[in-house]
Structures are given as C-alpha cells and as structure tokens.
UniProtKB/TrEMBL annotation, chain A:
Record domain PAC: where: 229-281
Domain annotation PAS: ranges: 156-225
InterPro entries reported in the protein's UniProt record: Biofilm_reg_signaling (IPR052155), EAL_dom (IPR001633), EAL_sf (IPR035919), GGDEF_dom (IPR000160), Nucleotide_cyclase (IPR029787), PAC (IPR001610), PAS (IPR000014), PAS-assoc_C (IPR000700)
Span of domain EAL: 455-711
One family name in Pfam for this protein: EAL
Protein's name according to its UniProt entry: Diguanylate cyclase/phosphodiesterase with PAS/PAC sensor(S)
Highest classification ranks of the organism: Bacteria, Bacillati, Actinomycetota, Actinomycetes, Kitasatosporales
Stretches assigned to coiled coil: none
Gene3D superfamilies hit by this protein: 3.30.70.270, EAL domain, PAS domain
PROSITE patterns: EAL, GGDEF, PAC, PAS
All residue ranges annotated as the GGDEF domain in the record: 312-446
Organism: Streptomyces zhaozhouensis
TrEMBL record, chain B:
Listed Gene3D superfamilies: Vaccinia Virus protein VP39 (3.40.50.150)
Keywords carried by this UniProt record: DNA-binding
Alphabetized InterPro entries for the sequence: SAM-dependent_MTases_sf, SAM_dep_MeTrfase_SAV2177_type
Recorded GO MF terms: DNA binding
Lineage, uppermost ranks: Bacteria, Bacillati, Actinomycetota, Actinomycetes, Kitasatosporales
Domain of life: Bacteria
Signal peptide location: none
Pfam family, one: Methyltransf_19
Name of the featured protein: DNA-binding transcriptional regulator, GntR family
Amino acid sequence: MTETVPTHHLPPDGLRRFATIWCRALYPATATSMTKREFEDLLVALSERLAIALRARSFDPSPGVSVGEALVTAHCTAPEALTRALGVIDAYLLLYCADPAVLGPDEGRSRCAKLQHAIAAGFARALQERTRSEQEALSVAALTAQTEIANALHESETRFRAVFRDAALGIAIAGIDGEIIDTNESFARMMGSASPPRRRNVLDWTHPDDSPEVWRLQRELMRGEREHYQVEKPYSRSDGTVLWTNLTVSLLRDAEGEPRYMLVMVEDVSERRLLNLRLRYQATHDALTDLPNRSMFFERLEQALAAGSSQSRVGLCYLDLDGFKAVNDSLGHAVGDQLLIAVAERLQPCASGPGQMLARIGGDEFVALFVDPPTVDSVAELARRALDALATPVTVGDRELMVRASIGVVEGPTRNLTSAEVLRSADITMYRAKAEGGNRYALADPDSDARAISRHHLTHHLPAALKGCEFFIEYQPLVRMEDGSLEGAEALVRWSHPRHGVLGPDRFIPLAEHTGLIVPLGRWVLQEAVRQACQWQVRGIGGPRPLRVNVNLSPRQLHHPELVEDTVAVLEEAGLPPSALCLEVTETAMIRADENELRPLRELAELGVGIALDDFGTGYSNLANLRRLPANTLKLDRSFTQGLQRDPADPVDLKIVEGIVSLAHALRLSVTVEGVETSTQAEQLRELGCDSAQGWFYARPGPPERLPEAV
Amino acid sequence: MERPTWAPQGIDLSVPSVSRVYDYYLGGSHNFEVDRITARRALEAFPGIPKIVQANRAFMRRAVRYAVECGVTQFLDIGSGIPTFGSVHEVARQAAPDARVLYVDNDPVAVAHSRAVLSGVPGTGILTGDLREPEAVLASREARELLDPSRPTALLLVAVLHFLEDEEKPHERVATLRDALAPGSLLVLSHASGDNGPVTVEQCGRVAEIYRDGGSRLVMRAESEVARFFEGFEPVDPGLVPIGRWRPDGQIEDEDPMAFSGIVGVGRKA
C-alpha cells in the first residue's frame, strides 16, 4: 500500500525560516560546540523530519522521538533548551510547515501537540541514557584511577619493603612509647638474636657505656621536641658481646603533625671502632717495647699539668741508658733492640702504681710519670727502684750485658709549669747524673738547671745558629816530629752561643749528627777551612811546603751522596790543591763502612786528598783490615800516649805504640799522635818513629791568625 | 624525609575537581555531587559562568582550526580536563587527519576517563602531568613518542593558568615550555580575568573564594599580566582580546555578553 502525501501550499523557504527562528531561540540555551550556522543547518534537517511527519496522510508522531534525541546529541541538554525548542514548534511549526487548506486547524493542532509529546519523550529518554552513561564512565574512570594508584602504591610499598628488608643498615620501627613494631633482618642479626626482638622496648636498650646525652635526646624526641638525633651507642647482644653502633633515631609524625612512630637505624661500627682503638693504641704506643710512646706521655703530662689544682704536684724520672750507643755500635741494632725490650720489662713494674706511667720517649730514653706523688722522696724512690731493677745483668741471646742508667728526677707543683719545662729540667738533671759518672739518679735543682744547657734547647737552636753565623773555627797546629816544623792544622768547630758562651764540638756535633744538620754544618766548616788554607798559602805561611788543613768528617757526612762532588767543588772554588786537605774519619765510622760507603773516600784519596783514620785504637779494629781502608794517615788516640807522659814511660805502652807505628809504616801509613802534652812525651814519640803530632805541648787550638806563632 | 618522585600521589574523591566542575558548567554528567555543590555555589555567585565556559570551548576550537590552517598539526594540551564533545583531537583530526594530540592533566580521574575515551584513537595520548613540572611533561615517554620536537607544536594552555598562583611561577613554567618548542610553534592561551565583560570584582572574589573552599585556587589576572605569558611569542591578529572577539565565526552581535569575559590570544614563536 502506498501513501500519497497531499500537496501542501507553503510559503517559500518555509523550512529554512522556521529553522532560523528555532535556532535563534535555542542556540543560546545549548552547550554545543557547533557554530550557529552549523547548528541552524542541523535544525533545518530536524525541521524537515517534523514537517514530513506533520503532513503525512496517516499521522505517526514517532519522528518526534528522534528529533528529541537529536537535540540531546547536539548538547541542548539544559531544561531551558527543551522549553525553548517546544515553544518554537508550538508557535511556528504549523505556520511554516503545513498548509491549513490541507491540514485542518484542529487536526494540525492535535498533530503538533503529539509531535511535541514525542520530542519531549525522546529528549527525556536520550538525556536519561546520556546521564547514566556519563555517570557510569566517570565512575569507571574514578575506579580505574583508584586501582592504578593502589597498584602504584603497592609497587612503591614493595620497593620500600625491599629497601627495609634488604638494607645493610639495621632498621626498626617503634611506636612513640618505644615498643618495637617491626625490625628488619639486619637489625636482628646485629642484635644477635635468632628471632627478631619484637615486644621489646627501645627504652630497655640501656648500656653502661651509654653517653649521658643519649637518653636526654631520646626523651626530647619522644616529646616531639626533636626530629632526630645521631649518636654512637653500644648495645648488649643476646650472646653477651657488645655491639657498637652509629645510631640514628628519627621521629615520624602523622598527618596532623603528632608524633606517631620512631624510625631507628643502626649501623654496626664495632669493627671500625676496634680499628680506631687499635690505631689509637698504635699512635700512642712504642712498637718495640709496647710502652706508651712520646706522644702519649706528653698527652698525660699535659693533662696532669692542666687539670691540676693549686695543690697538685707532678713527678718525673728521666732515664737514659749509659753507653747504649756503644752496645748498638758494637753488637748491632738487633741486640740493642733486645736490650731495650728487656729494660722496658724490668722498668715496667717500677712504675705501675696509681698515677704512675712508664713511657719510652726516644732511642734509649725512658720516662716515668708520677701524677700527684705523696712526697718528693716517693719519686726518688721510683728512680732507686729503677736502678735496682737494672742492677743485675740482662741476658740477650747468649750474652750477659751490664746495663747502667742515669736518671734525672723532677718533682714540683703543676701550677705555672709547662710540659717542655718539666722535661727540660729532667733532661738536664739526667745529664748531671751522667756527668757525675752515670749509674745514678740526680734530683733537679734550679741552680744547676739554669747553668746546664739542655740538649733539647741546643738541638732546637742549631739551625738558627748556623744561619746566624754563631759558629767559628779554631785551628790546632800539627807539627812534623822530624824537625818540629809546622805541617798543618786541624780545623775544630766552635759554637759561640749567645747565652751559654763558647761550646765545644762534643756538645753539639752529636746533636747535629742526630738531626742531620751535620751536613750543612760540615760543608760550612770545609769551605771555611779550605778558604783559610788558601790564605795561609797566599801569605806564604809554613814556608815552601804548603800547609795542610785537617777537617773532621762525621759518619753521616760520610754517607752523604754528594760528598765527593761537594768536596771537589769547594777545593776548585778556592783553588786549593787536593793534597792540602786531609779528611779525618773516626776509626769506628770507617771500619763500620762497607765497600760502597768507602768508595767516596777512595775516590777522594785518588784525587790526592789525604784521609786520616781518627781516634785510632778506640774502635777495636782488626789490624788486618787496615789494608783495605783508603787512609794514608793514622791518628793515634790520646789514650795510648797518656802512659808516655810519665818518666820513665810505661814500658807496655811503649811496646804497643812501637808496634802500631811499625805496622802503620809497613802499610805505608803515616802516624800522627794526639794529646802530646809534655816534652818527654814528645821526645819518646819522636824516637818511636811517629811522623807528626799535635797537643798542648805544641799549641792549643786558636784563631787562624795565631797559627804563624806556632811555627 | 622527602617523598620519592616514584611514589604515587593519592586520590581523594571527597574533594571537588576543577575539571569535573568545568564539565558540570558544560551541562555534562561527568561529575560527582561534591563537584556539583561547588559548581552550584559558583553559579549562584556568578550565573554567567556556563556561557564563558562555552565561549572558551568555542575559542579553543577556532584556535585549533587556525593552527591547522597555519600548518601546525601537533598539539600539546596541558590541563585538558574531562574530554566531552568537541575535544582538541576531534577538531584537529577533522581538519588534518594526521594530527597528533597529547593531553596532559594532573587529575587522575580525568586522566583515566581520557584514556578510556582515547583508546583506539590514533595519534592521541594522555599523560598524568602538571603545568608546574613542565620538564617532566617534556621528558615523558608519551611526549617523545607523539610529538616531534623539530616541528612546530601548538601549546594549548586553555583555562588552566588561572589555577596557578604567582608563587607557583606560572610565567617561568610557560617560558620553559616555550624554550622547548620549535620555531613556528603556537601558544593558545585563555585566562580568567576581571578586565573584560560584565563580571564584577565582587563576583571574581566570591568565585575565587568558593574554589579555595574546594581546595583549588583561581587567580584572575589583569591583561598586562596575561600579556607576559606571550614573551617570546609574536601575537597573532587580533592580539589579546575578550573570548568572543578572537576571530569569530559569525556575527559578533549574536553572542551572549558573557562571551566577552576573560582574555584569550594566540602567539607564534619566532
């Protein structure tokens, strides 16, 4: 069956005009993103659907439903939009879209109303659906977002868990009351218990060695007055051992800022602490004897002097072994070290009382500190105990060694004393004991202190003295025995000390040798002596044969790598022939030198420099060894010539000297004798064949300008 | 202890979200009662908001079309909110089928909804990010995948900068983004302002207060302050104007007076 639509006679552009009116009313009430033009085009299409439905032969209002839905799709969703949409239809649809001649007014009104009902129904249904689906979509989105965040939180929680579980740091979380809530494995392992110590309270972890501030800090944290603290703290492990930790406790607050939890982090520092203690021990103890060392001694002494009240006193025994150098030199360092260990063991019990400490502060120097001694004599008593302890010989290997010591005893109020002063006084006093023959103690006495010059003081001032030209040289003539003519002179260095006057080489050469200052000092002496020898030559002193100058060479200089170079340079600079210089090396130093160490001397000898073996007879040298030494002169020690001072001379001494001279001559060594003091002596030695001599009998050491008088 | 960056932010559905409130203004139902309470209070204080919002959407559409006309087919929309109808990618891909759009929002619900809407739509992406952290946005995997930094990009900051207070350094954030853009890129910007239209100072203050109650800030800025966002950009004709006056499609007289609130503009990076 086909339905023919009756022909309506309508105004031209009726649909468009209707849509324009509709759009004007509806557009302001929409949220559409269309432009007004696009929106009007949409409404033209919707108008056409309504017009067709309106004019159909048999009326069906259902297209109105689709128009209502279309309006919602076009975002005319506001209630106001529906009112406006229906208002325009009610007022203008029939007018522009139906011919009253075809569609009667009553039928037209009825159809128009029914279309409006259908539009409203379609609108309502579409809006309901849309609202539902949007709400659904939003809920899904919210759920999705929550799930994603829950997953992310879970992952983050997992990561944090892993950090907590696998951390090398021990971590515990406790409530603000201190009850442990959770711990990680490292924590349990450190605390040394098989099961984590749950149900335990942080506040129970006291230890006798806790620093007092730990628990103050902890209380402040629990009251919320402190966010965190860090301390070094010991814990008792369940096995009874002690765990030293670097402890950090942090306060965790809730969202309102109230204290809720404590985060406890412990780092095991037991080993580090042990290492520190060991290092501290090593830094404060002598490796050889295990006694406290110099720095610990000074630390204790400073403490005693600083902490002392006006009543407190301090006592000190400064002990130095007599002749220890000889032991070292003759028996070697290994024996010397054994001896020092044995001495330390003997001395240790002498200074083990309260307030007493024994330290080794130098090679063979020991010091016993006595804090707050009851009497002066109790310190002297300590010194006597020390001497008694050393009275019996010490067995080192298969040797029995006699040990003798000199002790300086100081006792006094701590007030106004510095550690340096105390030690200097003890040092001076010790030297007094040594000067009095050794193997004894001496009590410090301010008067002798003032006169004495401490080694420390001299050592301290040596460098400045060298810079400040406080040294000068005296020359002691060497006389040819054959005719009594002047052969040369030995250069002897002196120190013109601003406070202590002129000091002989025995006072400072060992110190310079010890500190190494001997090298620059020795070079200065050499330069000066060579320059002087040149002057004598220029002025013609000594006749046709040029005078020779003898300069002493210390063991350390002997080992100095630039000895040959320096010596040659000095000679060349001054223009002195090498034969006018003789270097004196002690027998002890020379026989201890190996072939490498002798090489420089050999080189110098080959250049023509004379080499004298000084103090011959004190070094117990194997006479057969003389052959291998680069010396061309032998200086006989004064101890051999002392017996010749008497008249008649000691026959044994005569024989010895005779033997040495004959041996020396056999080895093509000339012989010089020292310490010639009398004419008898001089005559004897001349008869025995000695080549040259020096001593007070001829001339004392003096300034270079006095040398000509000796001729 | 500072929270690590990889630990997620929480989600709280009991506080209103500016993007869901915005959806309500547009007549949508992507909102919860908590959002509607805030929106109703704002509408009570200032009934014209929906018209402004609508005009703002229309501006965005005109600006996107303009960008495509200029040959710019990459879009970075920061503060994209809940996608409803007439979104950037719809408009852009209608004009240029190969257009690429990266949406960025800091609201996890808006991001989840966007992801659902965009699933299966080629050339689009959504990123959880914040205008306050532009470096993170630029360095994101999504940005690297979708946007070619050597080609011009249209940066859309539509109705988002007024949620940043001065302390949050909005001008610096925009400058950071600008520096990452290729020459020829566009800045499409709209901002709430009391300078234009029928809105009163009292209404601005009241609405800002209502937003603050909901945990958000709303900062009205004067035209001179808005102009500073365009430093390094050459303003495109007609410059900074009320929303409805930026290259309108039809007769200006037809527009609702509310459409002349706010400040919008487009600038081109030299």
